[in-house]
Amino acid sequence: MSEINLLDKSVYNRIAAGEVVERPSSIVKELVENSIDAGATSISIEIRGGGIESIRVADNGKGIAPEDVPTAFMAHATSKIHTADDLDSIATLGFRGEALPSIAAVSKVTMLTRRKGAAIGYRYCVDNGVVTDEGESGCPYGTVVICENLFANIPARKKFLSKETAEESAVSALVAKIILANHDVSISYSSDGKTVYRSSGQGVKSAIYTVYGDDFLKKLDEVSATFNDIEMFGYFSKPSFSKHSKSFQTVIVNGRYVISDEISYWIYGCYQEFLMKRQFPAFVMYLKVPCDMVDVNVHPNKLEVKFANQGIIKKLVTDAVKSKIIDGVRVAKELGAEDINFSGFSFTEERFNPKSDERGEEFFLPFNENDGGFKLKDESKNYNADSGVIFSDETAATIEREELKDSAANAHFSDMVGRTLFNSIADLSKTGGAANTEDAESEIIEEKPIVFGKESIQQSMGIDADIKYSGKIFNTYLIFENGNDVFFID
Length: 490
What we know:
Elements: H1 9-20, H2 24-37, E1 42-48, E2 54-59, H3 69-72, H4 99-105, E3 108-114, E4 121-127, E5 130-137, E6 142-148, H5 155-158, H6 164-181, E7 186-191, E8 194-198, H7 204-212, H8 214-218, E9 220-227, E10 230-237, E11 249-253, E12 256-258, H9 261-271, E13 283-288, E14 294-295, E15 306-307, H10 310-335, E16 374-375, E17 382-384, E18 389-391, H11 407-422, H12 427-431, H13 437-442, E19 450-452, E20 455-457, E21 468-473, E22 477-482, E23 485-489
Helix pairs in contact: 1-4, 2-6, 9-10
């Protein structure tokens, strides 16, 4: 008896599904890519229960002919490539012909599709690899795919799924990248009936605004460069703006969202002289490369790519980004301190009792101008030593760089920001953190030096109240003058 067996269709489809369908976000990715390849200009994404209960993707693309629908659910059936030579210049998002059969092998799938000009649509249902219903049906132009009960018949796979909230977050993060990658397509996304994203499909700026908001967009600079047939453009964070993770970095190659540690490292190298530790630049970068110079057939999830001329692309990207950063720093230096304004402060009424705190030498984290104050160790709240209050992120003071309107704005800065930051060193050592500036003048608590790293600032410094703000260097250090003394605040 032969020891080598030909696997049944239901078995090898489930094996293939293990590579393509890892979690609900994998299904959303494959279905949306099919919609974009079909020429859709409007896509609707709806999920329930984190996508485990149901996923619905509808588009206004060209649809599928009724006679082609059953074939579309067969392994390695695709309309996007025809010969092996086509793999050397793939211009579509999908091409492997594995998505639909893999999804149908691990869930209940219902497809409704209708080509433009057709009098009626077509309905096709597959439940865990078994066709349960098919025939003519009324439906709008385009295609609707509904996936329900993911891994319901495969408990061994289902137990590895995360909680519904975690799966929902993964889908939301993916849809955000899809919106950025397809900025000319209108995409709406809702979870459990609540709208999360709704993009207009009116360009890159509109897509960034939809995903991150207006404040984020204002902190980005536009960068572009070309070399022969290679084009790079996008929006990169200013040197003074950074994020605590790489999740705000997006790389899109020929309209495809990809994950590239190499490109991320290249760009980080351009910024590293301006970044605090464990901070990263934010960017949305688009690369247009001739199809024969990029290999997207690296992994079934199609999130990785390889470039034929990586050195040229690296030089193009890094030279353009470095040039923009240098220009930004030069302009900042030319403006000088007199042209810098910082907004005022707003606080909550929650008070901080320094006597009960035992944080020791790690009491304060480094100052970051995006936060508007020294941050407590748990980074959940901001502490202002001058006022002696803790203020939440929603009401936390923000310090933003902009042109001064008049000398009164500079005086406002010196009075509010200067005293707040500098007194974090001086006055707290005298007051121990009084409730507000008035209390600081009238109430003296037990003498207690505050600690920055290994050094303490003692009360004996004899600091006067007349402190002058002189400027900022490297977008990191604030400079204050007090008589013959100069103080740098990180």
